[in-house]
Amino acid sequence: MSISTKLFSDQMLTRFSQVNKEIELRQTKISTGREITEASEKPIEAVKLSSLEQSLTQLKGFQRNTTTAQQRLSLGDTVLASVDGIMAQLRERAISANTDTVSASDLAAIRVDVAQSREALIDLANSRTSDDQALFGGYATDIQPFTPDTNGRIQYLGDGGQHTLAASETTRLPTSVNGAEVFMQVDTSDGVASIFDIVDSFEAAL
Fold first, then answer.
1. Is the Cβ–Cβ distance between 80 and 127 less than 8 Å?
2. Measured between alpha carbons, how far is 125 from 145 in angstroms, rounded to an integer?
3. What are phi and psi of 160, to 5 degrees?
4. Which letter does DSSP use for residue 188 in this model?
5. Which contacts of 124-128 are long-range, i.e. CB under 8 A and separated by 24 or more positions?
6. What is the pLDDT of residues 31-53, one digit of tens each?
7. CA 42, CA 27: separation in Å to the nearest integer?
8. Taking a C-beta distance cutoff of 8 angstroms, is the pair 74, 177 a contact?
9. Confidence band (pLDDT; 50, 70, 90) for 91?
């Protein structure tokens, strides 16, 4: 049976169209570097690829969280090391002030040092992260957590919240410490007191 010219022409046009689409598809794959450009090409492979892409995105998020946690905890370690250094200096000042040979001018100089140490402690307690969040304020990150009241006594305005970030689907890493516990709940022979009250008492005694 002969094939009419019109039918033959239609078949050729259809074939040309298919070849053109295949060429365009190949070009797209080459330019994008992706084997699957449309889910309809290989639906099963497309589902697997989508799942892998989601897992990769999630993994990158976990990596960012881990980096952030390390940065915040490293900053916390640095701040607390500085606090410990100041407290060690204050202990030395207390020993010096309690000797029989100390003079009135010596006591005045020690009192100036103590006042400066107090301000340094307040600044450290109010440390902020690189994204301007209060490091020791708990969930109250947008405030200055350690603030003097009308009598000049330092009060804690933060809360007891502890920040965590997901490091995996089942693990969360702490990224901060409780500011109230660190600075406001120091065990002494007279009970619990804040670091600032201890320093204020020392300064007043001078």
1. no
2. 8
3. -90, 10
4. E
5. 124/79, 124/82, 124/83, 124/86, 125/83, 125/179, 125/183, 125/195, 127/75, 127/79
6. 555 555 454 555 665 555 556 56
7. 17
8. no
9. very high
